[in-house]
Design goal:
Blueprint (H helix, E strand, L loop, with lengths): L4 E7 L5 H4 L12 E4 L5 E5 L4 E4 L29 H10 L2 E7 L14 H20 L5 E3 L8 H13 L5 E2 L15 H8 L5 E4 L13 H12 L2 H12 L2 H4 L5 E4 L6 H19 L7 H8 E5 L3 H5 L1 H4 L4 E3 L13 H8 L5 H15 L4
Parallel strand pairs: 1-5, 5-6, 7-8, 8-9, 9-10, 10-11
Antiparallel strand pairs: 2-3, 3-4
């Protein structure tokens, strides 16, 4: 392509010392700790070893036939997963100008760290400080987003204000602001504040009730991965946000649905409207406009490979979709991302392609 592109969803694999160096000394034994597993593979220990997870997200540059759920070998973890200077070099190999960056350990939200309030808050602050430092190496190219605690509205507001004041370009939530899976009136305190912010609230995959666990079987792993790729995790919270009048009450609020794909959106909007018209009196839900209109104006979404979504881009809104690589996870095509994208968008006019692969992200993240 003639222009530099922007990757709207990539990840880190945090270095071993992030939490061990940053949380209070009394909490370090229970904070996330990188450990050696059988066969030279590595994983993470949580809550002093009460939960062990394998590191399975360091896969960039590895042939797909070599993917192994037993965890990554330490030497397989590319430095670009945790070193910002190496990351910039890998981006150059993929010819990417900027990346929006999400966590590795807390993919499912801050529950992953601990259910203990003080420990979770310490871990959230530690990660947010680290990703801020990571991004500070090249602020216009490394757009690391901080994450929200799930310990209640007061804690979330304090952390959001802290990271927003120092220049964060987005905020990732994994539950409603109250910390649970069900919206509550108190959530409006957060929505009212963030509405006046120049950046968006981000939902990666969807909302979660607990930290990640090991898959019970190979089939469970494959099925869960497919459902994530289809965007099923974000469907319920987005429908609730529309139906509860969130965007009607806060007309400047913006939400980015991350790593959800986009092919499902036209059918989702159709169902939102049809369901509303059929059941709005029975449910006592009344809006001033059609649900799909609120979705169209307030929600952006990212995709990796989605031919059906590209074909339906005008039904979604060309100005509401952003391309991504998912580096360094299983969906990543590094270092050949542009070859795949060029093929998938071979019939897309250049002005639309530029908007999807660059300009929309420039606007959402206020890049120069």
């Amino acid at each position: 392509m003639e222009y530099r592109i922007i990757d709207a969803d990539s990840h880190v694999n945090e270095p071993a010392e992030v939490w061990q160096d940053r949380v209070p000394a009394a909490m370090r034994e229970r904070a996330p700790k990188m450990i050696e597993l059988e066969g030279g593979r590595v994983g993470w220990s949580f809550d002093g070893g009460k939960r062990i997870t394998k590191l399975q997200t360091a896969l960039a540059g590895i042939d797909v036939t070599a993917y192994n759920r037993a965890g990554a070998l330490r030497h397989e973890i590319r430095p670009a997963s945790y070193d910002p200077h190496a990351r910039l070099e890998e981006m150059e190999l993929d010819m990417i100008q900027a990346q929006v960056i999400y966590p590795g350990v807390a993919l499912g939200g801050a529950h992953a760290y601990s259910e203990d309030r003080e420990l979770q808050l310490s871990c959230v602050r530690a990660y947010n400080d680290w990703i801020h430092e990571f991004s500070s190496v090249s602020p216009e190219r490394l757009i690391g987003l901080p994450i929200a605690p799930v310990t209640g509205i007061e804690d979330l507001l304090l952390e959001w204000r802290r990271v927003a004041e120092r220049g964060a370009r987005g905020f990732v939530i994994s539950t409603y602001p109250n910390g649970g899976p069900v919206p509550l009136p108190e959530d409006d305190r957060f929505w009212a504040e963030v509405e006046d912010w120049e950046y968006a609230v981000h939902i990666h995959f969807g909302f979660f009730g607990e930290g990640p666990t090991e898959w019970s079987s190979d089939v469970a792993y494959l099925t869960s991965s497919a459902l994530i790729d289809m965007g099923t995790g974000v469907v319920r919270p987005l429908a609730e946000m529309v139906y509860m009048g969130l965007f009607e009450r806060f007309p400047r609020l913006r939400v980015v649905a991350v790593e959800t794909g986009i092919g499902w959106i036209p059918f989702f909007k159709q169902v939102l409207d049809d369901n509303f018209l059929r059941r709005r009196f029975r449910s006592n839900v009344h809006l001033k406009r059609m649900p799909s209109e609120y979705f169209r104006e307030h929600v952006w979404a990212t995709f990796i490979n989605d031919m059906h979504g590209i074909e339906s881009r005008h039904r979604i809104g060309v100005d509401r979709i952003m391309w991504s690589t998912d580096y360094p996870h299983t969906n990543s095509n590094w270092p050949d991302s542009q070859r795949i994208a060029e093929y998938e968008m071979r019939d897309v006019p250049e002005d639309e392609k530029r908007r999807i692969m660059r300009d929309n992200a420039v606007e959402v993240y206020r890049l120069r």
